[in-house]
Amino acid sequence: MSSILGMIPSVLMIVSPILITAAGGMICERSGVVNIALEGLMVIGAFTAASVHVLLEATVPGSIWIGLLAGAILGTVFSAIHAFAAISLNADQTVSGTGINLLANGVTIFAAQILFSMDRSAPFQNGMMPGIFGIYPTALIALVVILVTWFLLYRLPFGLRLRACGENPGAAASVGINVKGLRYIAVLASGFLAGLAGGCLVFTQTIQFTSNTINGAGYIALAAVSFGRWRPLGITASSLLFGAAVAFSIYVVNIPFLKNLLPSEFFSLLPYVITLLALVVFSGKNYAPLASGKPYEKAGS
Asked: What is 159-195 written as a DSSP string?
């Protein structure tokens, strides 16, 4: 029991970036745009946050928070590329998102070579410190993000209009809703949150940015959106499930029975196996917004 309780701070640490990113992905898909680029946007956010912190931590107080903001802003900037391609040019959204993922890997390695003369950031001296009960502030950030997301989507006219764009953009446009404008806002919001999540991950789970820092967290967040049926409560539960699986794969080395029963590589695969199973189970369910992934052309254009 003590071992399980001891895992809670680690579970919340791992869940927080996934949940923040999933919230952004949900907003994006609710507007009708699929954002496969969440992984790459997290990479951009993690590199930016780590680099800013490394360069400022010796002279500027609060450099971690400045780094988080910088990561979120750069995530927003790169998401604008996806928004322009998918919304203005009506490009295939999967291809556009995949391109952002590839671009993110190349850009961060190139920038690291320029700034630090190696393919990663320099290690930072101090990461984010855990608070009460060993829980990191990123858990509070994730909680605020999901609550604000729920409020925006289900308690404000803005959320109703956004969801209408993802269900029937033609009908939404017919009552004066700017479909493309709302979709731009949604994609940029997803980039902001993914960049923020990348910074949260790098400051709590490692001491520097490398090409393996994100390690599929963006794809897990994308799966959490689908598994959570595009609803705030659902993505919270699915993020907790996936995060617990990741934490368990790390902590299993401290459980002699399981450690000796199966090779450690099996448990390392566990989070991704659960993700794949979730996608298979829900692949035939029609919970997604009806217009998700479909370009919108204004009538008469």
From this structure: HHHHHHHHH-HHHHHHTT--HHHHHHHHHHHHHHHHH
Phi then psi for residue 29, to 5 deg, are -70, -30
| Rounded-to-integer distance, Cα 15 and Cα 159, Å | 25
Q: Is 77 exposed, middle or buried (0-12, 13-18, 19+ CB in 10 A)?
A: middle
CA distance 222 to 227: 9
The pLDDT of residue 27 is 97
| Those residues with Cβ within 8 angstroms of residue 181's Cβ, 6 or more apart along the chain or in another chain | none
Does 276 or 36 have the greater pLDDT score?
36
Residue 88 banded pLDDT, cuts 50, 70, 90: very high
pTM above 0.90, yes or no: yes
Structure tokens at 44: 């951009």
Structure tokens given for 176: 């004066």
pLDDT digits (tens, 9 = 90+) for 252-284: 766 666 666 667 667 777 777 877 887 777 665
How far apart CA 11 and CA 236 sit, in angstroms, is 13
